[in-house]
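Section 5: illustrative case.
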């Protein structure tokens, strides 16, 4: 741990938890709102739901995701949490990021195909999201000993090869 920054670690962790909760809540809410994009609703209702999902995604969920990822990355380096359970957690964080991108894609599709689109059902994305979140919580709270898993040698030891591109020098 970096000594001079030790007093701010609890504040960064609190920021990370709050932003993660906001991000995950938004990821749950947006598919439910998208499911309400029914072509049969009136134009005023359609416009209201579309604006709410758009602004929720752009102004709340995406900034919360960025702050959660940045603060989480800072915590990994400040706490020197380079352990197998953390890398397993990062796999599930990547699932959250992919889910976030999928929600953005669906939002754009819904916006561009008014009356033609078929909105996704809310239960399936919510189930996938809940699985990823529960896996993250389990890994963070249990901090299981994953050192007993036999990783392949190419994953645990650096290779003797160069990068496929030149690294700029200062």
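Designed sequence:
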């Amino acid at each position: 741990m970096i000594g001079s920054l030790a007093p701010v670690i609890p504040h960064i962790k609190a920021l990370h938890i709050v932003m993660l909760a906001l991000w995950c809540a938004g990821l749950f809410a947006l598919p439910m709102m998208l499911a309400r994009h029914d072509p049969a609703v009136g134009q005023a209702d359609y416009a209201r739901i579309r604006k709410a999902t758009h602004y929720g995604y752009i102004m709340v969920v995406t900034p919360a995701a960025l702050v959660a990822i940045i603060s989480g990355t800072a915590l990994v380096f400040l706490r020197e949490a380079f352990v197998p359970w953390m890398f397993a957690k990062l796999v599930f964080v990547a699932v959250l990021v992919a889910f976030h991108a999928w929600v953005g894609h669906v939002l754009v599709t819904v916006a561009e195909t008014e009356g033609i689109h078929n909105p996704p059902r809310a239960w399936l994305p919510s189930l996938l999201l809940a699985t990823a979140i529960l896996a993250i919580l389990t890994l963070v709270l249990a901090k299981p000993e994953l050192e007993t898993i036999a990783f392949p040698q190419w994953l645990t030891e650096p290779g003797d090869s160069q990068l496929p591109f030149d690294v700029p020098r200062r």
